[in-house]
Write a structure and sequence with these properties.
The complex is a heterodimer of chains A (271) and B (308). Chain A is α/β, with parallel strands linked by helices and 271 residues long. Chain A contains twelve helices and ten strands. In chain A, the strands form two sheets. A six-stranded mixed beta sheet of chain A has the order 6-7-8-3-9-10, with helices on both faces. In chain A, strands 2-1-4-5 form a four-stranded antiparallel beta sheet. Chain B has twelve helices and no strands. The termini of chain B are far apart. The chains are: A alpha/beta (271), B mainly alpha (308).
């Protein structure tokens, strides 16, 4: 089904990262392949995402963006490939990684309060039976403060709007105090104020020398928000600094002609 | 009073402990939208228990559990086979296998001579609470008399151990259980073995179903898994409180159900008592019905998510 052009583009980008690149990368993926049925959802994707950057993973619906993130984290099994986080096995680097799933992936009717969701970010510290102390609660509250949700700490999570849910998820990730933040569509279906609040927090993370990786669907904001892009459509199409990689040609290759050229013209593209 | 100790104390305790042992995992099954797993388990378990009895000649906890586990394994293999060979959708494959295995268990039970023990079709379907009598009780002193305590029906210590172990596991693994029930993907990224937790929850439910088999049989046990936690969910918006309420409702259902079954018909002038297990399930259903109408947090449960 794929055009020859796409094959060519994939081969251009397909070069497994070298050991030095893996060691220096925040997130290094080598030949990641994931399959839910007979057709692969992600095929042999390589990437070496730089440290202290804001990375967007971009591609059309069904391109395997979320799947790639989940496979990197070990949430879905991969058929092949390896993952390194700051040069380490992901299992050894769990304390350095925070994951924000898609908001719609959980049941917001679950009987719990906002503050309890944020405290889940402290699971690795609290373990099975350690008591939740005042300092833990204060830290969780401070994270809610950073996303502008401090007043909602005692609310039941079912009372939140979509944007508020997204902020609570971000607060939980902040509570993890990680070095690498992986977010799955953090701006999907949120109001403008929430989008602004979230991007501000993400930029403070970058300023604090953290790495932020977002599965992102809004091409119009890519140039403003991110300094590095990974374009995929099952296979990797291209990866590199936004300034040189977020080009019309790469987008056409990624979206396989599904993107109207008028649409592309409106984007702030790197030439 | 002796009559109460002899006739009613052990059945009530067994009923209460069975209800609690099922309600605890039931809370999580409901939140995971797996409520019917309890039903499936109770169906599949029956032939396993019967075969275990045929093989060993006794009704004891360990063979029953082994038999039930074996039956569950057979069920999984059968479901997979039917799905692949027959190309039938998973729900249909499960429905066929569970019902067929349950029917097989009933047939097996009918054809075998189990007259020496308390194992017959009626017992298997509806439980056997009324016959779990403590003959050795002679006044309250018996409660501290080792000789008299030794005469307690063996079902009581068995369900007590099961209920205690399930309660302990729920307490110790509370955080990973809650975390993986709410957000399985996130739980995996912080190192929770989500698959193991999910399997352990189903296994604990199976153990509870087998242990509660004595008290309420294999059909009515589903009410114990679902009704108390579902009613509890409507009482509160916090999981901790929900589990607490579910224990309260399970206890109340068991006690009231037993009392109504034993004495209720007499109040209405009828001669015979009715099935205690049936009445326990009916009371738990009534509690759920009342909670649906009057509980403070009547949000949807088991409904698809989705709000703005």
């Amino acid at each position: 089904m794929s055009a020859p052009k796409l094959e060519l583009a994939a081969e251009d980008g397909a070069r497994a990262p070298s050991p030095a690149e893996i060691a220096n990368a925040s997130l290094a993926l080598s030949e990641i392949t994931v399959s839910y049925g007979e057709k692969p959802a992600v095929f042999s994707v390589d990437a070496a995402l730089p440290r202290e950057s804001m990375v967007a993973i971009i591609g059309p619906n069904g391109a395997g963006k979320s799947t790639l993130l989940k496979a990197a984290l070990g949430i879905v099994p991969r058929l092949s490939g390896s993952v390194r986080v700051f040069g380490q096995e992901i299992e050894r680097a769990r304390d350095r990684v925070a994951y924000v799933p898609q908001r719609a992936s959980v049941d917001w009717d679950f009987p719990t309060r906002v503050i309890d969701v944020v405290l889940m970010g402290l699971y690795r510290e609290l373990g099975l039976l350690r008591f939740v102390r005042k300092t833990h609660r204060e830290r969780a509250r401070a994270c809610l403060e950073r996303v502008g949700m401090a007043d909602f700490a005692e609310r039941q999570i079912g009372q939140l709007s979509g944007g508020q849910q997204q902020r609570v998820f971000l607060a939980r990730a902040l509570a993890q105090d990680a070095d690498l933040y992986l977010l799955d569509e953090p701006f999907a279906g949120v109001d403008a104020a929430t989008e602004k609040a979230i991007i501000d927090v993400l930029h403070t993370l970058k300023a604090a020398r953290k790495t932020v990786v977002c599965v992102h669907h809004d091409l119009a904001t890519v140039v403003d928000y991110f300094d590095h892009v990974l374009l995929i459509n099952v296979r990797k199409i291209a990866e590199g600094p936004t300034a040189t990689t977020f080009t019309s040609d790469n987008l056409q290759a990624t979206y396989g002609g599904r993107l109207a050229s008028t649409h592309i013209d409106q984007l702030k593209l790197s030439s | 009073m002796d009559a109460f100790l002899q006739l009613s104390l052990a059945p009530i305790l067994i009923g209460v402990l069975s209800a609690i042992a099922c309600a605890l995992p039931g809370n999580f099954l409901i939140l995971r939208r797996q409520a019917l797993i309890g039903d499936a388990i109770s169906h599949v378990v029956l032939p396993g228990i019967v075969v275990a009895f045929l093989a060993t000649g006794v009704i004891a906890a360990l063979p029953m559990l082994v038999g039930a586990a074996g039956a569950a394994l057979v069920a999984v293999v059968l479901i997979e086979t039917i799905k692949r060979v027959g190309r039938i959708e998973p729900g249909a494959a499960m429905g066929v296998v569970f019902t067929a295995m349950f029917a097989g268990g009933v047939l097996l039970l009918e054809q075998t001579d189990t007259s020496a023990v308390h194992l017959d079709v009626e017992h298997a379907l509806m439980g056997n609470l009324e016959s779990l009598i403590w003959f050795d009780a002679a006044g309250w002193g018996s409660l501290v008399d080792p000789a008299a305590l030794a005469g307690l029906p063996p079902e009581l210590p068995r369900i007590a151990v099961v209920a205690a172990v399930i309660a302990l596991l729920t307490f110790v693994f509370w955080r990973p259980l809650k975390l993986s029930t709410f957000d399985e993907g996130f739980a995996a990224t912080v190192g929770v073995p989500t698959r193991t937790i999910g399997l352990a929850l189903v296994a604990a439910s199976a153990v509870a179903a087998v242990a509660a088999f004595d008290a309420v049989g294999s059909i009515i046990v589903i009410a114990m898994f679902i009704c108390p936690p579902a009613a509890a969910r409507l009482m509160t918006n916090r999981l901790e409180a929900q589990v607490g309420w579910s224990i309260v409702f399970a206890t109340v259902s068991a006690i009231l159900g037993y009392v109504f079954a034993g004495y209720g018909p007499l109040w209405f002038g009828a001669q015979n008592a009715v099935s205690a297990a049936g009445m326990i399930a009916a009371v738990s259903g009534a509690i759920l019905a009342v909670a649906c109408v009057a509980a403070p947090h009547r949000r949807r449960i088991g409904a698809a998510q989705g709000q703005g």
